[in-house]
């Protein structure tokens, strides 16, 4: 059974990021060189909404549409959704 999708994830999914987004990672945490978090809207159909995952190692973080996007060594792109996290808010 799929979990309910958080509003902040739904709102981010409505944005145009100008690049192919693999999935949205809710409440991401750094784990070594990777991220862990609940995944939503996985375009590769590997994971159900709300599943806890660990990404491949992150190559870089880029700011797009007032969000941070993690790009992994395998080429996946995750929009990071972390409400209330000051570290993941673009400067401004």
Largest beta sheet, briefly? 6 strands, mixed
Radius of gyration (CA) equals 12 Å
| Terminal residue distance | 39 Å
Overall shape: it is globular
Number of domains: 1
Mean pLDDT: 91
Beta-strand percent range? 35-45%
Quaternary state of this entry equals single chain
Q: What are the secondary-structure elements, in order, as H or E?
A: HEEEEEE
In total, the number of strands is 6
Q: Widest sheet: strand order?
A: 3-2-1-6-5-4
* Structural class computed from helices and strand pairing: mainly beta
Notable characteristics:
92 residues; mainly beta; 6-stranded mixed sheet; 8% helix
Describe the fold and architecture.
With 92 residues, this protein is mainly beta. It has one domain. 8% of the residues lie in helices and 41% in strands. It has a six-stranded mixed β-sheet with strand order 3-2-1-6-5-4, covered by helices on one side. The chain is built from one helix and six strands. The model has no long low-confidence stretch (mean pLDDT 91).
How is this structure best summarized?
The chain has 92 residues and is mainly β.
Give the helix/strand layout.
Elements: H1 7-13, E1 23-31, E2 34-40, E3 51-54, E4 58-64, E5 67-72, E6 77-81
Parallel strand pairs: 1-6
Antiparallel strand pairs: 1-2, 2-3, 4-5, 5-6
